[in-house]
Amino acid sequence: MKKISVKLAVAFIILILLSSLLSFLTSAVYMPNLQQEIKESQEAIGILIKDLSEKTDLSNEEISDIISWYTYETSILTHEEEAYINEQEYLILLDGGMIHKPFRRFSGVSTYLMIDDDIMRIQLRQNQNIWKIAASRIWFPGISFVIIGSVLIIFVVRHAVRPIIKLTNATREITLGNFDVEINYNNKDEIGQLTTNFNRMINELKKIDTLRKDFVSNVSHEFKTPIASIQGFAQLLQQDDLSDENRKEYARIISEESSRLSHLTSSMLKLSKLENQEIIQKHKGFYLDEQIRKCILLLEPEWSKKSIDWEINLDRAMITADEELLQQVWINLLINAIKFSSNDGKIIVSLNHLKEGVEISIRDFGKGMSSKTKERIFEKFYQGEEAHDVEGSGLGLSLVKRILDLHGAQINVESSLGEGSEFSVTLNIN
């Protein structure tokens, strides 16, 4: 396969050759200066012939032989050839003047003068024409131009395609799975823009690769733990001397771990579906405050165990959105608030109108989280140190973030260790 640098160099050299050839043809055909130069040269030869005739005893034939040289030839017209001279031209010759008549094609003109009774003709030799004269004058500059131009073009092309070669090598590395490549090219031209976007693409691919590896690792861990528990307790249930109390306890654990696996699988499927969804498909008008109250009631079994006290301040708000998806948001946020609240704790839920929408705030006074945890809470499967002793899969907040992104909403988190957390969601009304 030919390199692009070779193709470009050959193309440019061919263009130089064609342009040089066309330039030569144009110059030879449309070169009035060369035509005039031929006339002037022949007139100078004619003056020289007259001087030799006047100042020497040489015959016209001898003068013709002497004057004829490499480029021009001088001859005496025969009686038949003199017939081509008309009367007016003949008078000019008798008066000592010179006349010019067209010669062969691309051979310029012939110059005529009269010496004694002979009409002499000065013209280009048979083997000479305008093409040869033009070529003799421009062949060296032309060849030099082609050679120098070709060398410069090869140098320029090699320099121009260098970043493309780097891009090719970098692409090859990416196909091998190596994302630790970067192309340094600081020009602002099209190739510079291409390399800039290419570097951005590499960085994004590197992030995606890191997320993929983390995802596989986390999924493996999340599935491995409950599966190992189910397998272990299932083996214990096979013992003949197992007491009824232990048998029920082991069956309960297996049921809980199975539910955990089912919940984890369901959450992963929902998140996968949402990540491949770009627009909200179900737009419906509903009262947001009523939806949040229903979510709190649905979770009564959870917060009743901890005797959670609620402070609810919800303004009346009608919005248009996907009701089912937003319900998932409030349930996940409320479940987190309940999980991390202590017994007899308190949760504050508020809904306030803003200029262009509404703000929903869910505040708990539980464990809180560190700044490091707060930066990563929306990552898939991430669970901070504060959550290790609390049941969960690390997918709930990832679902929340994706659903809110689809609605064009914003979520903000304020939290400190030992002081609880506050999640604030800003939604457009329409």
UniProtKB/TrEMBL annotation:
Q: Which domain of life is it from?
A: Bacteria
E.C. code: 2.7.13.3
Catalytic activity field: ATP + protein L-histidine = ADP + protein N-phospho-L-histidine
Membrane-spanning parts: 138-157
Q: What is its main location?
A: membrane
Q: How does it sit in the membrane?
A: Multi-pass membrane protein
Name a GO molecular-function annotation: kinase activity
Mind telling me which InterPro entries this protein's record contains? HAMP_dom, HATPase_C_sf, HATPase_dom, His_kinase_dom, HisK_dim/P_dom, HisK_dim/P_sf, HssS/ArlS-like, Sig_transdc_His_kin-like_C
In which compartments does the protein localize?
Membrane
Signal peptide boundaries: none
HAMP domain mapped to chain residues:
158-210
Q: According to its UniProt entry, what is the function of this protein?
A: Member of the two-component regulatory system HssS/HssR involved in intracellular heme homeostasis and tempering of staphylococcal virulence. HssS functions as a heme sensor histidine kinase which is autophosphorylated at a histidine residue and transfers its phosphate group to an aspartate residue of HssR. HssR/HssS activates the expression of hrtAB, an efflux pump, in response to extracellular heme, hemin, hemoglobin or blood.
The protein's matches in PANTHER family, at most eight in alphabetical order, are given as: HISTIDINE KINASE, SENSOR HISTIDINE KINASE CPXA
Q: What is this protein called?
A: Heme sensor protein HssS
